[in-house]
Amino acid sequence: MKKSRIIMAGLIFLACLAVFLDFTGTLSAYLGWVAKIQFMPAILSLNVGILLALVILTIIFGRIYCSVICPLGIFQDLFIAFRGKKRKYTFWKQTKALRAVRYGALGIFSILAIAGVMSIVSIFEPYSAFGRIATSLLAPIYDSVNNIFAGIAKNHESYAFYGVDVWLRGTASLILAIITFIGLAIAGILTGRGYCTTVCPVGTVLGLISKFSLFRVRIQADKCKTCHACEHKCKSHCIDLTTHTIDTERCVTCFSCLNVCKFDAIAYTPSLKDMIKQHEPTSATNDATPAQDTTDHGENHTQNTTDHSENHTQNTTDHSENHTQNTTDHSENHTQNTTDHGEKHTQDTAEASTAPAHDDAPNTRREFLTAAATAAVSATLCPALAMAAGEADGALAEVSRKSPYPRENAVVPPGSGGWLAMRKHCTGCQLCIRACHNKVLRISDDAAQLLRPVMSFERGYCRPTCNDCSQVCPTGAIKPITLEQKSSIQIGRAIWRQDICLSAKGTHCRACGRACPNGAITFTVTQTAEGKKAKIPVVDLERCIGCGACEYVCPARPLAAIHVEGIMQHHEIS
């Protein structure tokens, strides 16, 4: 059973990780269901079908959700694996249940969730915590490796890979992801599933349900030899060998104890079967007299003691013989594999040496000279072309990095309904941020919107042809919308600043007007401070949807002369 659980958990974990790391958006269409079957997203999206399925699964099999479906729980198992097969940890044994801590954490979690303070809730919610780790820590590594392959493919004139920008999407999220990663690593190596059995609110809820589960891991006291092997292997510290009981609230149904027990004293059985076994010995002994019971008990005790000694001696002998035989077989197999590998390597080397060499030196030299000449001409002509384009457009601003605009009201994606509506459902898993190909969504560092996705337009704008963020959100914080709906949803309004606008200073600039997809920006003639005539932009607030195209293309630095301010409640424009 343990192997089957590991295979299923591995597939779920890889699918969930692929959804967060994939920057092309291809896998989300096929694997997006992995995010929607998580417990907290199902609650926030009011997905009754998924919730009922998870509850029924827990009632039947116990807390198997924590070992097979939860990505953070599976992620902890990777750290637990570093513990290896050593059993020298004296603290790796049954611990107190700490019910007051668990229930207290669940109570605080529930109050904050009902009050809509999802910033604090998302810190301890397992799916959101995994999303931060995947997006803030693992995704940059994945993107960097992809860029290495993209560079290699480019040199070979291949388009199998393409480069992506690696940039920091939020300082607070990165810091919290690092702290969570280190905390889980330490807790996983030292305490196993300590987070799941003490802090995690989802684990506490499922633990309460698992008290009534049909299948449970049980210890048969008559077979147990109190060797403590299961206790040392238990990830949840829920096995008490003094009473031969297992705390079902903390047991995550990992089946590690079943594999390690040499006496078949632990079994994963339904409660009905266990009840039948308990009643069978009672009915058999009711017919016997008290004197006979006493005699039989003495004889049985003596016989069991003798059988146990003989069985223990036989098991020890068999174990030694099996160990010797396995060691011999392993040595022979290792020698055979080494020989085969050496022969194969020699054969491959011989075939490679006899392969005909391609005489492509002239072509390579010609391609190098052509590329060098092209680069030299481009380096010479690009400044002149840029100056010519600037003179035609009037935008001769210094080419430098644009700074994020300090907005009074955050801009949130279309489909969310506005900031107040989104904050009640968003867990901060950052899946939408990863799906944004326009580099508009990022993680807020402000206290009011901490760890929530907000929009900023230094690297791009919200294109009318993209609705990816609404398609991947598992909680309903960003509801699915069509491209037609998106083009008519107003998420903010553009605000113009005369003091830093290049047009107001007499420079010929029409960048914002040309970029506006709705034609909400027109120009009117005015006089500058020097008495010259200039055309300045005028924003039609009834037609502006707040896509940020004007802010993105504005050549003013370090702040754009026109920026978007969010509105509290989104609405459709005619």
What does this protein look like?
By secondary structure, the protein is mainly alpha-helical. It folds into 2 domains: 2-269, no CATH class; 419-572, Alpha-Beta Plaits (2-Layer Sandwich). The chain has 24 helices and 10 strands. The strands form 5 sheets. A two-stranded antiparallel sheet has the order 1-4. It has a two-stranded antiparallel ribbon with strand order 2-3. The chain has a two-stranded antiparallel sheet with strand order 5-6. The longest helix has 65 residues, at 290-354. It is elongated and about 100 Å long. It starts with a helix and ends with a strand.
Layout of strands and helices, then pairs:
Elements: H1 2-21, H2 28-31, H3 33-36, H4 39-44, H5 48-61, H6 65-68, H7 71-80, H8 99-115, H9 118-124, H10 126-155, H11 171-191, H12 194-198, H13 201-210, E1 215-219, H14 229-233, E2 239-240, E3 245-246, H15 256-260, E4 266-270, H16 271-285, H17 290-354, H18 361-393, H19 419-423, H20 431-435, E5 441-443, E6 453-455, H21 468-472, H22 483-486, E7 489-496, H23 511-515, E8 521-527, E9 533-539, H24 549-553, E10 562-572
Antiparallel strand pairs: 1-4, 2-3, 5-6, 7-10, 8-9
Shape: elongated
Distance between the termini: 59 Å
Structural class: mainly alpha
Domain count, please report it. 2
Major β-sheet profile: 2 strands, antiparallel
In percent terms, what proportion of residues is strand?
A: 5-15%
Count the DSSP helices: 24
Uncertain spans: 87-91, 278-362, 368-398
- What is the averaged pLDDT score? 79
Spatially, the strands of the biggest sheet line up as 1-4
Radius of gyration from CA coordinates: 33 Å
E-strand count: 10
Please estimate the helix content. 40-55%
